[in-house]
Design goal:
By secondary structure, the chain is an alpha/beta fold. The protein has 6 helices and 16 strands. Strand 1 and strand 2 form a beta hairpin. The chain is elongated, with a radius of gyration of 18 Å.
């Protein structure tokens, strides 16, 4: 069974939520399709909000295990609905609430819902943060697409004809099996060569990269496929 540890809830220690052998949903402030949120919550055993994401949780009558952030977006009504022990107030302003969360949580896989589809600068900052936490598997879950930072190697079970896009966050090279347009020998760069709108031609796709800076983008309907691949 999963083990969840909440460390350091006092003034002298930095709080950290460690969920072993389980999935965590991390909720951001962008409201989207309620079904996408409910599906992500149903797959997880822990629900954590990033600051204003707590407003979304309370409005949806979802029980939060914790809220992390500088608390500049949470409403007074939401704060009143939360147990004080669940609020992890991080006072510094040098990092985004998403980064504050990733510094303090750990799980097999984190499903980050509510971080896509809002302001473009917020979405770009989310990609920036995610690229700096390669050791923690995180899937950004949007209404249309999911995005994750590829590990050095991954095997994905996907139907033939599935749309798959690759967006590098740094110069890199890779190897693929099962794509209509193989990536072998391509020098990817975010300002020149990217891999938008590729597709699969085999039921099992293999990807590997020499640097852990490649974002993989798939339709949201394949969330379970990606979770399984990242937990393997």
């Amino acid at each position: 069974m999963p083990f969840v540890h909440l460390f350091g809830i006092n003034a002298s220690m930095d709080p950290r939520i460690v969920a072993e052998n389980t999935i965590m949903t991390l909720l951001g402030p962008v409201t989207g399709d309620p079904k996408v949120l409910n599906d992500a919550v149903s797959l997880a055993t822990i629900l954590v909000a990033a600051d204003g994401g707590a407003n979304v949780a309370v409005d949806a009558n979802l029980k939060l295990d914790a809220v992390i952030g500088d608390m500049d977006s949470i409403t007074a009504e939401t704060r009143a609905a939360l147990a004080e022990s669940a609020v992890i107030h991080v006072h510094e302003q040098e990092t985004t609430d998403f980064e504050k969360c990733l510094q303090r949580v750990s799980a097999d896989v984190i499903l980050a819902v509510g971080f896509l589809g809002g302001r473009i600068d917020h979405s770009l900052s989310t990609f920036n943060v995610l690229s700096r936490f390669p050791e923690q598997p995180v899937i950004l879950v949007g209404d249309e697409d999911i995005v994750f930072l590829a590990p050095p190697g991954i095997e994905l079970a996907l139907p033939v004809g599935t749309r798959i896009s690759l967006f590098p966050f740094a110069p890199l090279k890779g190897h693929s099996v099962g794509l209509n347009w193989p990536i072998d020998g391509i020098a990817f760069r975010p300002d020149t060569k990217i891999g938008v709108s590729n597709s699969t031609n085999k039921a099992n796709v293999s990807l590997s990269f020499d640097t852990q800076k490649m974002f993989v983008i798939l339709p949201t309907e394949f969330l379970n496929n990606v979770i399984a691949a990242l937990r393997t």
